[in-house]
Amino acid sequence: MDKMAKDQAASTPASREGKYLTFALAAEEYGIGILKVKEIIGMMAITTVPRTPEYVKGVINLRGKVIPVVDLRLKFGMDAAGYTERTCIIVVEISTEQQKILMGIVVDSVSEVLNIRAGEIESTPNFGSRLDTDYILGMAKTHNGVKILLDIDRVLSREELFLDQVA
Amino acid sequence: MNLANMKVSTKLYLGFAVPVTIMIVLSFISLSSLGKIQQNLDRIVTVNNVRNNLAYDTGEDIRDIMVRLRDVILLKDDGQRQEHKKEIGGLREKYDGQLKKIEEMTSKDDTKGHDLIGKVRTAQAEAKDLNNRFLELALAHKDGEAAELLETKAGPAVERVTKAIDALAEHQVERSKARFEEATKAYAGARQFSIVLAFLATILSGGLAFLIIRSITGPLQRVIAGLSDGAEQVAAASMQVSSSSQQLAEGTSEQAASLEETSSSLEEMSSMTKQNADNSSQAKAMMGEVRKIVGKVDGQMGNMVKAIEEITRSSQETGKIIKTIDEIAFQTNLLALNAAVEAARAGEAGAGFAVVADEVRNLALRAADAAKNTGNLIEGTIKAVQHGNELTHLTQEAFRENAAISVKVEQLVDEIAAASQEQSQGIGQVNIAVTEMDKVTQQTAANAEESAAAAEELNAQAEQMKSYVSDLVRVVSGNAQFSGSPLPQEGYAMARKPLSKAGHKAPAVPYKKATGHSAGKGGGAMKLTRPDQLIPLEAGEFKDF
Predict the structure, then answer these.
(1) Are both B231 and B210 inside the same structural domain?
(2) Whose CB has fewer CB within 10 Å in chain A, the N or C terminal residue?
């Protein structure tokens, strides 16, 4: 329902232009809109919460705020990786219908803030009907590779919201 | 009396003694017989015949007395009668003396003779008495009474005396006969005895002589034969000895030469061994130094390891610092990103801030880069240091192995040194032994020389012996026909036969001169003096040696 609106909102290349925070995950570079990014922090102690899905690592205490942390690798179905000194937690602000919630995603490393122009963004190719790629805003062609621009709202919103609702 | 076991002198004495004894016996017997005969003859002549004559003379005297007595009667002259009485007195003295002589000459055991003489004496005394009476009567010119007396008494008395004297004479004759028979017996006995003895002597002497001769000449012949053979064999043996002495001398000279070679090579060996020993002791010293050096190196290695460890540690600490710097850079990066995010959120107002944030990020990236580079460098350093450490360890190991090996080498060198020492001692001993061998060789050479000289002498003696034997032969057999004449050539020719079976060098070479082909070294005539010639040369060499 809202998905459609968001789809429409996100589908235009012009609207996808802007600054993206790029980060690496596994072997790929991804990007998140800078406005979605609240904060970037280095890896810190995560308090595990029981009865959470595997990709939900737990919660962290960020200056008094308790923020849930999700391992994006596991979210994407990749193998879990060990946390290095470059592993960071990106605190993103995802907006749902009701509210804006802060969430942390564990990424392998954070690269830079890129200003991506509309011309560099390509729409997501269609991999077939079964694959749902609406969480990908597009592919950014930069001088050092293709970065997958993520719609972080879509990435994190489904089951977490479900969880949230349950909680 | 085994003839064979007696001395020759004894035999000869015996051989002569028997006939001589027999002869002596014979002579003795003959002489005694002859003596007896002569004695008898003497007796007969000097005694019996004299007695006979005396008796005859006495008889004659008595007759003369008778005659005178008659004459006295017949004669008228007183002076003549007195003369006749004197004559009668003289005659009476004469026949008294004769009777006395007869009595003296009659041996004491001739009792009959004495008896007869006694009878004569008595008869004579009687007759004398009567005759004296007659004479008285006659002188007193009583011729008639005298004649009557004479006829009746004096005459028969005188006749009785005469008869007694005749009996005495007969007895004397008998005695002479007896003596003659004795002599004859003696002669016969002596003759028989002599014949028998002569026969016996002949047989005995002949037999004895035969036996003795046989017993002397038999062994003599054997001895001669034996001596002759022996002399030949001695000559042959002496030739063999001479040739073997020559061989010995040659062999000895060869031996001396090889001994010299041995000695010289021993000296070389000795000097080499000495060098070896020196070298090994030097090597040992060097090994000791090597060991010291290796020890030092080991120490240094240890130091180096420690230094490397320090380097590693400081590198690691530097690395940690770099890591800190990297973290700082990272955090700065994050800060920069956060700043960029805030700047982006701020929109227009944050554009400058975005630039600042960007610059900060650049700086952070640079710092990160530098830190990364430094980190890389440090890692590289650490790796290099690790490599160096490994190399150090390897080197240490290698040096340890080296040390172990050098210890072994040192041991080996020690052993070499000890072995060299022993070798040197052994060579010394071998040297001594070679010297002794040389002495012995010299002595052997001298002995060979002596042997050769002795052989020569032996040969000469054999020749001498042969000549003696031939002398003996001549004495025994009367001629010089015997094998083994004293000629040297023939002798050696004879002697050559047993030598033909001698050793490799055919010593069929005459000693004194080269007849025909001469075998042996150099083809030249082997002279007797060759060993002597050989040996002085060698002896000279020996002196040098």
Answers:
(1) no
(2) N
Composition of chain B by helix, strand, coil, percent to 5: 90, 0, 10
Q: Verify that B368 and B475 share a domain, yes or no.
A: no
A-chain residues near B338 (CB < 8 A): 39-40
**What residue type is assigned to position B43 of the chain?**
R
Mean pLDDT of B386-395: 80
B135 and B274 together in one domain: no
The single-letter DSSP state of residue A64 is: T
Q: Are residues B204 and B290 in the same domain?
A: no
Please say if the pLDDT value at position B435 is more than 50: yes
Q: Any idea which residue has 């595990």 for tokens?
A: A48
Answer whether residue B13 is part of any domain. yes
Q: Are residues B38 and B159 in the same domain?
A: yes
The 8-class DSSP code of residue B485 comes to -
Question: What CATH number has the domain bearing residue B336?
Answer: 1.10.287.950
A·B CB contacts under 8 A: 43
Range of the domain at B103: 3-217
CA-based nearest distance B308→chain A, Å = 28
B528 confidence band (pLDDT: 50, 70, 90): very low
Please indicate if any CB of chain A lies within 8 Å of the CB of B330.
Answer: yes
Residues B128 and B243 reside in one and the same domain: no
How far apart are alpha carbons A106 and B166 in whole angstroms? 221
B334/A88 touch (CB, cutoff 8 Å), yes or no = yes
Q: Do B338 and A39 touch (CB under 8 A)?
A: yes
Domains in chain B: how many in total? 3
| B100-128 tens-digit pLDDT | 887 787 777 778 878 887 887 888 788 77
- In terms of domains, do B68 and B169 share one? yes
Query: Which of B330, B340, B344 lies closest to A42 in CB terms?
Result: B330
B58 found inside a domain: yes
Contact list, A42 vs chain B (CB under 8 Å): 327, 330-331, 334
Q: Chain A residue closest to B346 (CA)?
A: A35
Closest Cα in chain B, distance from residue A10 (Å): 19
Residue B424 within a domain? yes
Question: Is B337 an 8 Å CB contact of chain A?
Answer: yes
Chain B nearest-CA distance from A158, in A, is: 25
Question: Per the domain annotation, does B105 fall within a domain?
Answer: yes
The yes-or-no verdict on residue B75 having pLDDT over 70 is yes
* Yes or no, beta carbons of B340 and A42 under 8 Å apart: no
Please indicate, yes or no, whether residues B235 and B291 belong to a single structural domain of this protein: no
Gap from B386 CA to chain A (nearest CA, Å)? 25
- Please give, rounded to a whole number of angstroms, the shortest distance from the CA of B382 to a CA of chain A: 21
Question: Which residue in chain B is spatially nearest to A86 when comparing CA positions?
Answer: B330
Q: Name the interface residues of A facing B (CB cutoff 8 Å).
A: 19, 21, 34-35, 37-42, 85-86, 88, 110, 112-113
Architecture, CATH, for domain A2-166: Beta Barrel (2.40)
Q: How far is CA B539 from the centre of its chain?
A: 29
Sequential DSSP letters for chain A? -HHHHHHHHHH-HHHH-EEEEEEEETTEEEEEEGGGEEEEEE----B--TT--TTEEEEEEETTEEEEEEEHHHHHTPPP----TT-EEEEEEEE-SS-EEEEEEEESEEEEEEEE-GGGEEPPPP--SSS--TTEEEEEEETTEEEEEE-HHHHHHHHHHHHHHH-
